[in-house]
Amino acid sequence: MFVPKKLIVTGGAGFIGSNFVHWVIQNVDDVEITVLDALTYAGNLENLKGLPEDRVKFVHGNICDKGLVEELFSRADSCVHFAAETHNDNSINDPEPFVETNVRGTYVLLQAARRFNLRFHHISTDEVYGDLALDDPNKFTENTPYNPSSPYSSTKAASDMLVRAWHRTYGIMSTISNCSNNYGPRQHIEKFIPRQITNILVGIKPKLYGDGLNVRDWIHVDDHSSAVWKILTKGRIGETYLVGANGERSNKEVLRIILSLMGKSEDDFEWVRDRPGHDRRYAIDSTKLRTELHWNPTKSKFEEGLKDTISWYVDNRSLWMGQKDCVEKKYSLSE
Ligand SMILES: NC(=O)c1ccc[n+]([C@@H]2O[C@H](COP(=O)([O-])OP(=O)(O)OC[C@H]3O[C@@H](n4cnc5c(N)ncnc54)[C@H](O)[C@@H]3O)[C@@H](O)[C@H]2O)c1
Description:
Layout: E1 6-10, H1 15-27, E2 32-37, E3 56-60, H2 66-73, E4 78-81, H3 88-93, H4 96-116, E5 119-125, H5 151-170, E6 173-179, E7 182-183, H6 192-202, E8 207-209, E9 215-217, E10 219-220, H7 221-234, E11 240-243, E12 248-250, H8 251-261, E13 270-272, H9 287-293, H10 302-315, H11 317-332
Parallel strand pairs: 1-2, 1-4, 2-3, 4-5, 5-6, 6-11, 7-10, 8-13
Antiparallel strand pairs: 9-12
Nicotinamide-adenine-dinucleotide (NAD) binds next to helix 1, helix 4 and strand 5.
């Protein structure tokens, strides 16, 4: 078992990274965290509010900055790498930052992990596997061939390949996890669930792409955090673990639940044009993680998790209101 004492979390001011830092501070004693984050439009220091200053330090910087990364890695024993450009729609409009951060940034971190012999856990996505037909009886497993569809997923796939090669060639102590779609507090409002919730809150009709039948396999962000901690501390070096909570739902189903939880008619939404290359269905088989590392999700009641998530957006209007116009303006160009 690996016991992290000085952990670097890249992208820790974003959605999943910040929830992971909160989860670790609540659930683990005796570990100090340094968050390295460039605070792009997706990062927000408010996401780290309330954390103890003696255990969590924030460094404003870019993972592509070799000097800074080496300085931080020289004083740490481990890194969990969340930092990425993550929004599919943005990657279609401008892929360059995706190649820079997701591929080159991961390369810079791997070189530093190699130099300072850090335990390195790379956070990836199920989107590297492409998509499944709605009626396909199979789910993604660790053996599914990579088949990414978008600039986003292709750069994540490329970063996974770098991690695998750096392990095999240079023996770095790495693991990879590919997780399904996360939901929960602190997610940027450009993403599907928070966009729907905040649209309803500001009086805009929610919008649904295509025929609404695209299926995502939802997991609460806290369950992702507990899985990452399991893999970081108990995972076998060089291995990949898929993370999922059997939460398959169509986009239409999810939107109808949100509308109903927010006291609206379930049909109170508009259809909009589908985006190019939109993956049909993702589904994760997480048997390896469950049997080998004895991980189990504890927040698998989707409606309950959604209810709490809605409450978070209601209670934290000041965190997202300033971004709402800009996000909707961007969407209006393609919808
Ligand atoms: N959101 C999901 O459902 C999901 C599912 C599976 C995997 N993932 C993966 O989890 C990770 C985190 O996703 P998220 O949804 O929290 O993303 P996010 O967009 O909310 O946050 C990304 C964070 O990375 C930071 N960042 C971006 N470029 C950087 C750079 N060059 N240097 C330093 N920091 C930089 C941003 O400022 C932001 O704080 C990503 O690697 C993503 O591929 C996400």
